[in-house]
């Protein structure tokens, strides 16, 4: 009976340790990707997001211009690409700090108004002030909504801040538990516990990646618009690649530990 209890205890520890290692690996990956604003901004840069955003804003503004009877020149070239980039960076950083971000539109509206007045003057036309104000408001909404993803990210800011703050403690806690279990395993079970959990965690990582790429089909999923979708998909693929690298490392570590175990036994026998 006692032998069975020890065996149950051994397999239970192996199972728990496998889950802890898996959680630890995922947290480490998320810490340097999803919970790292510099990484996110770098992905925006790599995927030419700012240029595409600039073009999307101008294209949608042109759509409203066509409806109003004005010419495209009223909104062409009025957007400062550097300002758009700074606005996006401020928005992303605010998700991790919890700070409220206000998108600046005064210069944008002023430029559009000047262009409208110039257009009306050249063509000997007049327009009501309320119509101009309505048009400026529409342009402002287009600008803000494109930059802030129609405010769809605001709801995750609070949760992201809390998770990010807890993440460091979680990593420390998981690491501590793994080290403690590894340290006491030889004294309680008389067996090395880590090789099997390492391999099990690696297998779960490979399984997760298989399901991600073969069953979910990430490449066909759309997020908000094409530009955002491209960035998010690249982040997912990058996380997937990092997890595979971790899985390979875990397998190599398990082989090293098994080799050390065999070598230790041979020394004892000799």
Structure keywords:
270 residues, mainly alpha, 2 domains, 9 helices, 80% helix
Q: Indicate the overall shape.
A: elongated
Number of domains: 2
- The fraction of residues in strands falls at under 5%
SSE topology string: HHHHHHHHH
Helix content: over 70%
Mean pLDDT equals: 82
Radius of gyration: 28 Å
Largest pleated sheet: none
Distance separating the two termini:
33 Å
Count of helical segments?
9
What's the β-strand tally?
Answer: 0
- Outline the low-pLDDT stretches: none
Query: SS-based structural class?
Result: mainly alpha
Tell me the layout of helices and strands.
Blueprint: H1 2-32, H2 37-46, H3 49-68, H4 81-97, H5 106-122, H6 129-147, H7 154-188, H8 195-216, H9 226-269
Helix pairs in contact: 1-7, 1-8, 1-9, 3-4, 3-6, 4-7, 5-6, 8-9
Structure description:
- The protein is mainly alpha-helical.
- The protein has two domains: 2-38 and 169-269, no CATH class; 41-154, no CATH class.
- Helices cover 80% and strands 0% of the residues.
- It contains nine helices and no strands.
- The longest helix has 44 residues, at 226-269.
- The model has no long low-confidence stretch (mean pLDDT 82).
In short:
By secondary structure, this protein is mainly alpha-helical. It contains 9 helices and no strands.
């Amino acid at each position: 009976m006692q032998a069975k209890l020890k065996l149950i205890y051994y397999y239970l520890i192996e199972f728990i340790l496998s889950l802890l290692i898996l959680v630890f690996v995922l947290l480490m990956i998320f810490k340097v990707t999803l919970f790292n604003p510099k990484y996110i901004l770098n992905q925006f840069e790599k995927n030419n997001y700012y240029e595409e955003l600039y073009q999307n804003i101008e294209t949608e503004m042109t759509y409203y211009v066509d409806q109003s009877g004005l010419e495209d020149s009223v909104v062409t070239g009025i957007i400062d690409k550097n300002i758009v980039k700074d606005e996006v960076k401020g928005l992303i950083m605010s998700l991790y700090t919890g700070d409220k971000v206000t998108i600046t539109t005064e210069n944008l509206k002023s430029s559009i108004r000047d262009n409208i007045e110039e257009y009306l003057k050249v063509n000997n036309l007049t327009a009501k002030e309320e119509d101009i104000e309505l048009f400026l408001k529409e342009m402002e909404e287009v600008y803000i909504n494109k930059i802030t993803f129609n405010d769809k990210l605001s709801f995750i800011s609070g949760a992201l801040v809390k998770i990010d703050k807890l993440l460091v403690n979680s990593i420390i806690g998981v690491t501590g538990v793994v080290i403690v279990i590894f340290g006491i395993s030889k004294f309680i079970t008389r067996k090395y516990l880590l090789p099997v959990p390492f391999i099990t965690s690696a297998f779960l990582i490979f399984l997760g990646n298989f399901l991600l790429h073969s069953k979910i089909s990430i490449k066909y999923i759309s997020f908000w618009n094409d530009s955002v979708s491209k960035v998010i998909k690249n982040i997912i693929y990058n996380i997937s690649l990092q997890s595979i690298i971790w899985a390979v490392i875990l397998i190599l570590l398990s082989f090293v530990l098994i080799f050390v175990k065999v070598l230790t036994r041979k020394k004892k026998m000799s």
